[in-house]
């Protein structure tokens, strides 16, 4: 059974001349126990998409289903106890303490873990008795996280869970997320942090201007982008003669070859160097990184016109 299904979904704000489609035909599925990451530039439509999955807004067009056949808006009462959500902008009751806030939430949640355990897992044990209004930005995010995960939800939505957290907080959060995944939770998270996506996600999508510009595993996504070979060589090396299919550039004593055929170009280059007795100083061969794929997509500046029908 598909745990999360999103099929040609559109989200539109405003109407008439002011209409703006923030999500434009997005489709993906997440299987039970998988972690799917939505990466994207600011304003790409990540929060707008997640809100439709959380049942906070209905799609303008298209279909969203959770747990096989439940509609997030129509079946909200059934879905609510089985899901957890960490919104990008949560709100708290300012004068309650951290522990009181989590306790209040736990009482509303079926099968909640003990409050003390929830606080410890989110790294807030030492802040239990502090009024929420006096928590730091990162500590508030941790409390958000504790609330979203206290019920060990079957599906968990995390909208930028680690934004504003320090390195230790990020790692604690990743550990908590992995732990929930090991216990069977299906997780959808949005992030700007490529390392976060790369280290946590089974599959991910890169969104840009309302569309999904790429979707798959990290390996599948970077496969569509060019790889790089590089080495240092003195100016006497005839770089015009290199037997490679890629584009060759030389700068500050280093030669860079950008290629779609990493393995065969590397083989040809090394064979050529061996034959000519040329030393390729600090030779490297590497596929495109997720960061390069992301930046290439983010730099696409096409603006699609608003649909009028
Ligand atoms: N209520 C609204 N009315 C009009 N436009 C909106 C509204 N909410 C969001 N938008 C627009 O929709 C687009 C997508 O916004 P969204 O919040 O989904 O982006 P995001 O990918 O979550 O960005 P970020 O990484 O900054 O959180 C943005 O251009 C935003 O300005
Ligand atoms: Mg957002």
From TrEMBL:
It is a peripheral membrane protein. Signal peptide: none annotated. Keywords: Antibiotic resistance, ATP-binding, Nucleotide-binding, Transport. CDD domains: ABC_DR_subfamily_A. GO terms for molecular function: ATP binding. InterPro entries: AAA+_ATPase, ABC_transporter-like_ATP-bd, ABC_transporter-like_CS, ABC_transporter_ATP-binding, P-loop_NTPase. Residues 4-234 form the ABC transporter domain. It is found in: Cell membrane. This is ABC transporter ATP-binding protein.
């Amino acid at each position: 059974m598909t745990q999360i299904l999103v099929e040609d979904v559109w989200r539109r704000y405003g109407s008439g001349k002011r209409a703006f489609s923030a999500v434009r035909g997005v489709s993906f599925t997440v299987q039970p126990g998988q972690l799917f990451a939505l990466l994207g530039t600011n304003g790409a439509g990540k929060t707008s998409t997640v809100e439709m999955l959380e049942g906070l807004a209905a799609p303008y067009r298209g279909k969203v289903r959770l747990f096989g056949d439940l509609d997030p808006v129509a079946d909200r009462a059934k879905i609510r106890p089985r899901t957890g959500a960490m919104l990008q902008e949560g709100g708290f009751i300012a004068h309650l303490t951290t522990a009181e806030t989590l306790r209040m939430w736990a009482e509303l949640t079926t099968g909640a873990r003990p409050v003390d355990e929830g606080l410890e897992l989110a790294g807030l044990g030492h802040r239990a008795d502090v009024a929420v209004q006096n928590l730091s930005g990162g500590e508030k995010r941790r409390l958000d996280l504790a609330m979203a995960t206290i019920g060990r939800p079957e599906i968990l939505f995390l909208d930028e869970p680690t934004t504003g957290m320090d390195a230790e907080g990020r790692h604690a959060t990743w550990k908590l997320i992995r732990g929930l995944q090991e216990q069977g939770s299906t997780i959808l998270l949005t992030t700007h942090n490529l390392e976060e996506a790369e280290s946590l996600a089974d599959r991910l999508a890169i969104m840009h201007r309302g569309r999904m510009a790429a979707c798959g595993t990290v390996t599948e996504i970077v496969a569509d982008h060019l790889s790089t070979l590089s080495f240092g060589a003195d100016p006497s090396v005839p770089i015009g003669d290199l037997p490679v299919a890629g584009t060759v550039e030389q700068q500050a004593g280093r030669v860079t070859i950008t290629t779609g055929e990493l393995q065969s170009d590397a083989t040809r280059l090394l064979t050529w160097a061996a034959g000519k007795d040329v030393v390729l100083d600090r030779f490297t061969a590497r596929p495109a990184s997720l960061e390069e794929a992301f930046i290439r997509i983010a730099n696409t500046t096409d603006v699609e016109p608003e649909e009028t029908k």
